Structure formats: structure tokens, C-alpha cells
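QA checklist item 7 of 12: single-chain prediction sanity check.
[x] sequence parsed
[x] length recorded as 217
[x] structure emitted
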Amino acid sequence: MTENIELLLLLAERGATGSEVEVRLEDLAKAMGCSRQTAHRRLVRLEKSGLIRRRLKGRRKLIEISERGRASLQALLLMLEKALRSTGSIRLTGTVTSGLGEGSYYMRIPHYMKQFEKVLGFRPYPGTLNVKLDGTSEERAAALREMTGRVVRGFRSGTRTFGDVKIFPARLKGTDAALIFPARSHHRDVVEVISERNLRRSLGLKNGERVELEVIV
């Protein structure tokens, strides 16, 4: 893990976070204090983990940090902020939007509901509040997906397999809540929030209204 972060940081310093850059193994090996072979193995490991993309263009070796790789770096930044500021929370901002239905689907499955209740200490309302994130908050949410959170485990039922759901305790307008990330969700700009109450109704929230979510990490 430490080696992955070290190499990602080196690639980021060379501009690989926003575009492809040409990288020489000799330069990476020298920066990391290792052999060319070791540097190559670490690059292959990053590629297999989905953290970078590599391709050849003639004799040039081009590398770009993937979305997942950028999220890993953002997660590191959030952990550093937490350690330095001792706040233990991350703030996400956005606007209330219509539901995706993914989170509420999980909330209606008894096997999941029992785990939610055990992990959170309350029985969630069987629905979610959806928040469309601002640009910076979208990056922070992507980083949260890479961080360690509480997990509601997936399971198999007959021929169907249900994935994990990652959970972070949160507060919205003074109300206890939780931010959930279904493992199989492909939406990156919208997050789902659950609570013991119907948040939209109890807080009088309407589509387009700006909200700030305090996520406990």
C-alpha cells in the first residue's frame, strides 16, 4: 500500500493526474531508490489494481493516473487533513435531487435491513435522500469510497448475488444520518443519505435546495 502511494505521488508530481505523461523507468527507479525491474513491477501492480493506465506510443511509454488512482490520492489527503486538524469529519455540499432508487432498493431487503440496524444502532427509514454533489465534494466522495468505513456485507440468494454497502455516519441539519455507498453503484456525482426519519419530509427539503452533509470518518 505504501509503495503504491509513493509511486502514485511521483506520477502525480509529473503531471499524470490530468493527462498522459511520458515516464522513464530510470527516473522512477532513481526517485524511489530501487532497480528498474522493481520500478517496472510496481507500475504493473498499479495497472492491475486499476490505479493507472499505460500505453505505448511508438517508443514512448505513456502513463495516466486513473479515476480510482486519483480517488486514492484524495483519500490520502483527507486522512492527512483529519490527522492535522483533528476534526474527524469531512463536509460534502450539494443540492437535493430526485432519487436514484439504488439505496432504497437495499433498504427494502430484510437481510440488509437487519445489518443496517445493527451497524447504525437504529432502524433506517426505507428510503434515501439523494444529493447531487458540487465538483470538489464529488472528488471527496470518490475518496471516501476508497477509505475504510463500516460495511454491510453482501450475500447470495439462490442464483442472485447482492453486493456490499459501505456506510459512514453523518449529520444533516443537526439530524443523525448515514452516507451509503452501494458497491455496485456507478453514479459518482450523486450520493444517498439514510436516517431513522424521512429526511426530505422531516427537514422540509425540496429538489434544488442546497445542503451540507457532515461525514464522520
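[x] summary fact logged: The helical segments are 2-13, 25-32, 36-48, 67-85, 102-107, 110-120, 135-146, 199-202.
[ ] second reviewer sign-off
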